[in-house]
Amino acid sequence: LSSDQGVSATPAIRSLVGQIGPFTPTANLVRTREDLVAAASGPLAQPRAVPESEFESLVFSRGMDYYESLEANGLPWGFGEPEARLRPVPALFSQGQHDVLFNVTDAFWNYRYFKSAGAETRILTHQSGHMHPFEGQQKGPWACGGTDVQEAILSWFDFHLKGIRSATYDAIPEICISLMATQDQTTAPVGVELDHFPVGALSGTGSVPAFAAQLEVSVTAEVDTSGVFVPVVTIQGDGKVLAGIPQVESLTVTAGEGSTQTAIAIAGIGIRRNGEVFLVDEQLTGFVAGTHVDNRGVEHDEGVLFPGVGELLMDGDEVGLLFYQHHNQYAPVAAPQNLSDIDGAGQYLPGEPDIPAALRELKPVTGVLATPNPYAVTLNGVGLPIFVPGEYAGSQLTQ
Fold first, then answer.
1. What's the chain look like in SS3?
2. 187-201, 228-242, 365-379: which range is least confident on average?
3. Listed range (189-198, 367-376, 388-397) with the worst mean pLDDT
4. How far is the C-alpha of 250 from the C-alpha of 288, rounded, in Å?
5. Backbone phi and psi for residue 207, each to the nearest 5 degrees, phi listed first
6. Residue 137: pLDDT above 80?
C-alpha cells in the first residue's frame, strides 16, 4: 500500500500489511495471527506499532457479524442510535464458488442476516471470483444454471431503484448454487435452486446421509501435494449433488512428530473418483493448533462452517475431507532481497513441495521458507450437504 500506486491506508493498516508484504525480509515467518500481532506491535513496526487491542478492534469490528452480534445482544452500534436494528434492505448477494478470498459461506452469513430483517433477500453463486495465480484458476461462467448473474443484478437494480419490473427480475431464484464438474471444466455448469440454504448433514426425502461422528487424520512431513484424504460417504448412483455448507461440530489440531513451529491444518472438501483425489472448488481453510468449536470472529452457535461448495457427483464417488501439509493458497512470502542470487525470482513463493513449473528453479529457496508442517486432527460431528435435486424438499436443477 503506497501513494505511488494510488492507494492509501491508515497507519495501522500500513503497519499490519507491511509485516507480510514482499519487501519485508521476515514476511515468510508470519504464519499465524499471533505472529502478525507480535511483529506489528514490536518496536520496528512502521509507520507505528499496532497493539493487540487495536488489532482486535480493527479486524473484528468492521464486518456484518460484528453489527449482527451487537443487535442480538441489545447493544447499540455506536453511531448515535438508541438500539441497533438492521432496517429491511432488499439485498441480492452474488458469490463465486471458486473465490479463494471471499467464500460462499461469507455470502450465506450476510444473506441470512439481511433476510432476518424482513426484506427481500436472495443469493446466487457462480463459477468466477477472486482467483489464485499459482493455482492456475480460470474464471468460469458468471451464471447459476439458467440464471445470468449480471442480468439478474441489472434487473434487481431496475426494480428496486427505478421501479421497472421485468421477467428477468421475476425469474431470480431465492437461492441458487452453481454446480460444475471440477475435473471437467468444459462441461457447462448447472445450478440447483432452493428455498433454503443446505448446511451440514441433511435429512428427509431426497437427502443422502453424510455424517461421521468422529474422524482422525495424521499429516506427516512426507505428505506430498496430493494431501491426505479422509472419506465420509460413498455415493450410490448418479443424479446426486454436493451443494451447500459442510459443518463440523469441533476439531482439534495438534503438532505432529518433528514439528518445529506452530501447526496449521490446511483442510478442504475432497472427492476420490476413479482412484484420483481432487479438491472441490479450490476451497481451503487453515486451522491453527488448538480446539475449534466455531469460526473465529463469527458469533454463531453452529460449530465450524467450511466454505460453501457445489459439485456434481457420480456413482462411486467418495466424498470427505482433504488435508494438506503445504498449499499454494497458504504460501510463504519471499522478499526480493532474500532471493538476490536467483535471476527473475518472483515475489511470492509457494510452500514446498507445491511448486508450479514456472517456479521450479526456486525449489531450494522454498525449502528454507516452508519448513515441515506435520500435524494431527480429530474432528467431531462432520456433516456434508448431499442430496438429489428435485427430490430433496424445495430443490430443483436449472440449466
1. CCHHHCCCCCHHHHHHHHHHCCCCCCHHHCCCHHHHHHHHCCCCCCCCCCCHHHHHHHHHCCCHHHHHHHHHCCCCCCCCCCCCCCCCCCEEEEEECCCCCCCHHHHHHHHHHHHHCCCCEEEEEECCCCCCHHHCCCCCCCEECCEEHHHHHHHHHHHHHHCCCCHHHHCCCCEEEEECCCCCCCCCCEEEEECCCCECCCCCCCECCCEEEEEEEEECCCCCCCCEEEEEEECCCCCCEEEEECEEEEEEEEECCCCCCCCEEEEEEEEEECCEEEEEEEEEEEEECEEECCCCCCCCCCCEECCCEEEECCCCCEEEEEEECCCHHHCCECCHHHHCCCCCCCCECCCCCCCCHHHHHHHHHHHHHCCCCCEEEEEEEEECCEECCCCCCCEEEEC
2. 365-379
3. 367-376
4. 13
5. -85, 155
6. no
Question: Do residues 193 and 396 make contact, with C-beta atoms less than 8 angstroms apart?
Answer: yes
**Please, is 92 exposed, middle or buried when counting C-beta atoms within 10 Å of its C-beta (0-12, 13-18, 19+)?**
buried
pLDDT tens for 210-245 read 999 999 999 999 998 899 999 999 999 999 999 999
* Three cell numbers, residue 13: 493498516
